[in-house]
Amino acid sequence: MGLVQVGSPVVHMPRPRRFTRRAWQGYLMLLPSAVILLTFTIWPMIIALYHSLCLQDSAHPVPKFVGLANFGMLFHSHLFWQVMGNTFLFIVATVPVSLVAAMILAVMLNRRYRLTGFFRVALFHPTVLPLVSAASIWLFMYTPDYGLIDKALSAFGGAQLNWLGQPRTAIWAIIIMTIWKQLGYFVIFYLAGLQGIGKDPYEAADVDGASAWTTFWTITVPLLMSTTMFVFTIAMVDAFQLVDQLYVMTQGGPDNGTNMLLFYIYQQSFTYQNTGEASALSVILIAMLIFVAILQNVVDKRVHYES
Amino acid sequence: MGMKRRLSNGFIQAVLAILAIGWIMPLVWVVLMAFKDPNNPNSVTSLFGGLMPSLQNFVDAWQSAQFGMYYVNTIELVAGIVIIQLITTTLAGYAFARIHMPGRNIIFIMFLLQLMVPVSALIIPNYMTMQNLHLVNTKWAIMLPYFASAMGTFLMRQTFRQLPREIEEAATMDGAKWWQILWHVLLPGMRPALVAFTLVSVSFHWNDFLWPLIVTSTPQTQPLTIGLQLLTQMGETGAQWQMICAGTLIVVAPLLILFIIFQRKFVNSFMQTGMK
């Protein structure tokens, strides 16, 4: 699910000094949400941090404090770096492409056409599909010989390939499928951003006789900057947490060629019972997610000050 | 409209059309596949070969996995989550928007954390919590972590802020209690935001997979996404694609049909919940 812009400023009212009856009402209204958030967001972060510092696996069911040993073990493991490398490649290959494509598509879709309804359904329908279903569909698409991809390629004389069967193509197969699934979702936010710009700047540019290209670069791109930062954050958070397609399509394989951070956490924890190491991985994931949020916040403030 | 503008319009439409056809191809293929005869060798070798006007594949898929049970579970889970969320987010959104209380900013930061670190990143500790609460393999385990939504809370807070204070003050003067004001005076103005949040939340939880996979282990508690995954796994052991495609459509049909009918509403809802 999308995020609300993290940078939205807290309104600074004069700080009330007394706990008025009204204030108690407020606490009471916040209570149900706060209990859930404390239990399932704050507390788990503390638990993860604690377990990341403990030796705990199937041979050692009772957690024993070992300091940073889990992190040390990870940093010396070849698999960990392979997983981080895959995660990095996945992010670098999906996020910028999706962002640029989504912006261009939104600009194109922002006009009214006879076929607007069809364009919308075609581009946005993956947004409402479960990732698991999308992954099932693409599993068939990528099947050697019979799959739609191989059939299309063979029509152009291309070679038949077992796309998901070899590490080098498998990760790209996952990347392409993920872009297909997500692009429409990002287009939606850019369409919202374009509506926020309104018509005035474009009419002014029209009067000045600016070309479509100039208009795009000098008006659309800069004025969509805060939308871009927002979509960037969603795309990053999603890139770290999307694993359903790995589960369905490759199980992280072949040869860990598509294994990525969250799937690796899942495997270490629920397949191999390496709770300590998996918790250390979770701490790394949480740290990166918070880093992305802070980065977005900082850049977003700058964008707001400049405009 | 000038000649040049019209030309570029045509060009853009052509690009969009090609892209849209490519984008929808996987879905079209699944639909075709679901209506193909599993005993006809042409079914998989040619795009339109082996089509049959029968729902046999759907019947087979429905019977091979307990889709009836998965359906009921999914509806229960999604309804349970969304109804509770509507209550918790409305209350919290109202408190954040209208009530000044000491420590409000600190509580707000706690809500921000849920936006940054989603439940899926916390599967291990949350699973431990469910174990301690003896809730593993129950529907409560799937639903509980989602009973609060920071995204929903912020959306409601924003919407409450846009409602004029005057009507609230007038109602207070007339002696109405806060919950009467909330229910009778403010909620009507909240309807678009509530609908938007409901649509987004339903589509998120209808599609959720990893967390239910972790905390449940029997069909009695599991949602459709898990049922589909089990069916897809059967594909590796020789089950027919025709049946798996039918199973995929069984899972995606409700949201997909809703989306095709109300696409504008869906798109607007996603827009609205994504904005601050």
Automatic annotation (TrEMBL), chain A:
Q: What domain of life does the UniProt record list for this protein's source? A: Bacteria
Q: Which Pfam families match?
A: BPD_transp_1
Matching InterPro entries, A to Z?
ABC_transporter_permease, MetI-like, MetI-like_sf
Transmembrane residue ranges: 27-50, 87-109, 121-141, 170-192, 213-237, 278-299
Boundaries of each ABC transmembrane type-1 domain copy? 84-296
Q: What topology in the membrane does the UniProt record assign? A: Multi-pass membrane protein
What is its subcellular localisation? Cell membrane
List keywords of the entry alphabetically. Answer: Cell membrane, Membrane, Transmembrane, Transmembrane helix, Transport
Primary localization: membrane
What family name appears in the similarity comment? Belongs to the binding-protein-dependent transport system permease family.
For this entry, the protein name equals Sugar ABC transporter permease
What organism does this protein naturally occur in?
A: Alicyclobacillus dauci
UniProtKB/TrEMBL annotation, chain B:
Question: Carries keyword Cell membrane?
Answer: yes
Output the PROSITE patterns linked to this UniProt entry.
Answer: ABC_TM1
Location in the cell reads: Cell membrane
Q: Which UniProt keywords apply?
A: Cell membrane, Membrane, Transmembrane, Transmembrane helix, Transport
The residues covered by the ABC transmembrane type-1 domain are 71-262
Question: Could you tell me the superkingdom of the organism this chain comes from?
Answer: Bacteria
Q: Does the keyword Oxidoreductase apply?
A: no
Gene3D superfamilies per the UniProt record, alphabetical:
MetI-like
- The UniProt transmembrane annotation reads 12-35, 77-97, 106-128, 140-160, 181-206, 241-262
Q: How does it sit in the membrane?
A: Multi-pass membrane protein
Q: Which InterPro entries match?
A: MetI-like (IPR000515), MetI-like_sf (IPR035906)
Family recorded in the similarity comment: Belongs to the binding-protein-dependent transport system permease family.
Q: Which PANTHER family match?
A: ABC TRANSPORTER PERMEASE PROTEIN MG189-RELATED-RELATED, LACTOSE TRANSPORT SYSTEM PERMEASE PROTEIN LACG
What is the designated name of this protein? Carbohydrate ABC transporter permease
Protein's organism: Alicyclobacillus dauci
